[in-house]
């Protein structure tokens, strides 16, 4: 098992003239300790000036009129047509809005994370674990103002700990407009940007000052793998660039004393069958480039879905042959262990994981 934030000992300095050197140093037991403990927290979207808010609004509209906002670079006017993501300008399509209890404990807390699951996606992962809403345009349409009303309702009625935008990469302008509208309506909880990491620096520039917690899923290390399994040529390069920018904006994950995360970066990695060496490279990169205090969730819940394991098409194919057969099985405990060990060996120590007492470390 990983050491968690709960278990990390912090040595308190003893004045040498007070205690004999034979007394072992005291060890702080608190799992929430400086520098990761916040006394209080004001969401970043309340700290930007009205001038900067107006600049962001006009930048959002400009992006929609000529959208190159994600690495697909469609260069389309979304008021007239749609690009790769299939979503236009005036409304977003939402699959579900609800308090959600499937996130990390430090995000869902006791009341849930106020999740907005957007339909559509700018990736085409062949194993998509959410393909009913990500690859099919199902759900209901909302303007940014209507979305803002839902955000405030999640806060007031659901008492959620945050607003969690799931798969927002293709609707960043509408999300920016919704956050700015919601702050005028009384929104007070942090914003979570829950992404595949297939973002662009332009979209992250638009989000800078509006997002409190970045929650990227760094999926694969090699561009060849992303080409085959995510249908995106340069995913890995893009993810590395995007995650560095996210970290520059918000830094390490910080909590208030109730154990709820309020600001910072939390990186996820879903271990995939036969791809554990890519997970190892991701863990090493995180420790080397972002530092050993980066908060990580090594996820174990991969299962074959979407196109994986379906019959191959075409007149000459053998009926027994399955598509993407190399990932058509659950991930093994050994594979997960390899990535977990690599994370520890790289010096990472802040993990989202079940606690030994059966509950959750937060
Ligand atoms: S957000 Fe949509 S329209 Fe814009 S570049 Fe990406 S896929 Fe294309």
UniProtKB/TrEMBL annotation:
Q: Where is the Radical SAM core domain?
A: 116-237
Source organism: Knufia peltigerae
Q: Where does [4Fe-4S] cluster bind?
A: 121, 125, 128
Q: Which residues form a coiled coil?
A: none
Q: Which cofactor does it need?
A: [4Fe-4S] cluster
Keyword terms, alphabetized: Iron, Iron-sulfur, Metal-binding, S-adenosyl-L-methionine
Q: Does the keyword Iron belong to this entry?
A: yes
Q: Please give one Gene Ontology molecular function term for this protein.
A: iron-sulfur cluster binding
Enumerate the InterPro entries for this protein.
Answer: Aldolase_TIM (IPR013785), MJ0674-like (IPR040085), Pyrv-formate_lyase-activ_prd (IPR016431), rSAM (IPR007197), rSAM_sf (IPR058240)
Annotated cofactor note: Binds 1 [4Fe-4S] cluster. The cluster is coordinated with 3 cysteines and an exchangeable S-adenosyl-L-methionine.
Name of the protein in its database record:
Radical SAM core domain-containing protein
């Amino acid at each position: 098992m990983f050491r968690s934030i709960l278990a990390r000992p912090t040595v308190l300095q003893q004045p040498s003239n007070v205690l004999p050197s034979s007394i072992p140093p005291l060890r702080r037991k608190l799992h929430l300790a400086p520098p990761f403990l916040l006394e209080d927290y004001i969401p970043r979207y309340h700290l930007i000036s009205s001038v900067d808010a107006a600049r962001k609004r006009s930048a959002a509209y400009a992006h929609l009129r000529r959208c190159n906002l994600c690495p697909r670079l469609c260069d389309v006017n979304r008021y007239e047509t749609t690009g790769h993501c299939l979503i236009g300008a005036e409304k977003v399509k939402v699959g579900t809005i609800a308090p959600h209890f499937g996130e990390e404990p430090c995000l869902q807390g006791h009341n849930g994370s106020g999740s907005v699951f957007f339909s559509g996606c700018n990736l085409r992962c062949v194993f998509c674990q959410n393909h009913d809403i990500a690859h099919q345009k199902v759900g209901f349409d909302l303007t940014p103002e209507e979305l803002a009303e839902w955000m405030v309702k999640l806060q007031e009625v659901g008492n959620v700990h945050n607003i969690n935008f799931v798969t927002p990469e293709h609707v960043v302008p509408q999300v920016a407009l919704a956050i700015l509208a919601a702050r005028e309506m009384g929104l007070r909880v942090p914003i979570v940007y829950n992404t595949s990491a297939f973002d662009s620096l332009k979209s992250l520039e638009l989000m800078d000052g509006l997002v409190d917690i970045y929650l990227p899923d760094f999926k694969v290390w090699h561009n060849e793998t992303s080409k085959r399994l995510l249908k995106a040529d340069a995913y890995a390069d893009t993810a590395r660039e995007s995650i560095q920018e996210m970290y520059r904006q918000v830094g390490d994950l910080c909590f208030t004393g109730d154990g709820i995360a309020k600001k910072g970066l939390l990186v996820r990695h879903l271990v995939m069958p036969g791809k554990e060496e890519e997970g190892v490279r991701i863990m090493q990169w995180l420790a080397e480039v972002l530092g050993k205090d980066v908060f990580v969730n090594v996820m174990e819940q991969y299962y074959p879905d979407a196109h994986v394991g379906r019959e191959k098409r075409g007149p000459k194919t053998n009926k027994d042959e399955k598509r993407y057969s190399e990932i058509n099985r659950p991930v093994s405990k050994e594979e997960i262990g390899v990535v977990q060990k690599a994370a520890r060996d790289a010096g990472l120590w802040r993990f989202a994981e079940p606690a030994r007492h059966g509950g959750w470390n937060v």
